[in-house]
Design a protein that fits this description.
Elements (H helix, E strand, L loop, with lengths): L2 E7 L3 E8 L1 H14 L1 E2 L1 H6 L2 E9 L4 H8 L3 E10 L6 E9 L2 E9 L1 H8 L12 H13 L2 E15 L4 E12 L12 E3 L6 E7 L5 H9 L3 E2 L4 H10 L9
Antiparallel strand pairs: 1-7, 2-7, 2-11, 2-12, 3-8, 4-5, 4-8, 5-6, 6-7, 8-9, 9-10, 9-11
């Protein structure tokens, strides 16, 4: 089977993003790790590596909708963890105002490789919203691979309020292609000074002690997505800048 039927319908959640210096990250991590537990991925692997391949249509709608600040927008990606092919997700991330939600479906490595090559024949429409809309955009608007995004994640969770706080480090943009399974894919750093993206996600409320903690964290509140940031790096990439 090219696709495993699995529709994880997420509810809308609040999201806060902060861009931290190394010093701000160390301070925030020390405080948060004392109050929250590592998530299941972190317990098993420590910091874990995430690679995503984002898709966009022939008009670059996902990119320009983000730049324009369109209130309700969606983007699609394939995501892997620690270079493993055991778990591969096709995901739709939807933003509506100041809230987000994510829906995903598991796909095989053969299916993912076919999509990277421009072949959607292994992805069959089923009861999943994700595959149905992905295929509709593939045929109707020319949805195709856009940019590979890499980073290392450190994550903490709190069951009350379903709070999840992540530190995403070493954000890099793929500049030599869109084959996310290529271990030697050339990537370049987005933040050469080692800045860290802190993301706070929660359902209807966040416990007061965590709200106060987040409010005390320094850093710059940002709205820029990893996708658009890495797309900019790819578009402006100059090989001579890194000695190629």
């Amino acid at each position: 089977m090219a696709i495993m039927r699995e529709n994880i319908a997420g509810k809308y959640r609040h999201e806060i993003k902060l861009l931290l210096t190394k010093a701000e990250y160390v301070t925030a991590r020390t405080r948060i790790s004392a109050l929250m537990k590592p998530d299941s991925h972190s317990i098993k692997n420590g910091d874990y590596f995430i690679r995503s391949l984002y898709f966009d249509d022939i008009n670059h709608s996902s990119y320009w909708d983000k730049i324009a600040g369109v209130s309700h927008r969606k983007k699609f990606r394939i995501r892997t963890y620690n270079f493993s092919e055991d778990v591969i997700k096709l995901e739709c991330k939807e933003k509506n105002g100041d809230r987000i939600r994510k829906e995903s479906v598991s796909i095989s490595s053969d299916c993912a490789r076919a999509l990277i090559a421009g072949d959607n024949s292994l992805l069959e429409p089923d009861s999943s919203f994700v595959t149905a809309e992905f295929l509709a955009l593939w045929g109707g608007k020319g949805l195709r691979p856009s940019v590979v995004v890499d980073y290392t994640r450190e994550a903490y969770v709190e069951p009350i309020g379903n709070v999840r706080i992540t530190f995403d480090k070493a954000l890099r943009a793929g500049v030599s292609g869109v084959d996310m399974f290529e271990r030697e894919l050339l990537t370049v750093p987005v933040y050469p000074n080692g800045m860290v993206i802190m993301e706070v996600k929660y359902d209807d409320f966040i416990p007061k002690h965590l709200s106060m903690l987040v409010s005390s964290v320094g850093g710059e509140k940002i709205a820029v997505s990893k996708f658009t940031t890495c797309r900019d790096v790819l578009d402006n990439f100059k090989p001579q800048a890194i000695g190629l």
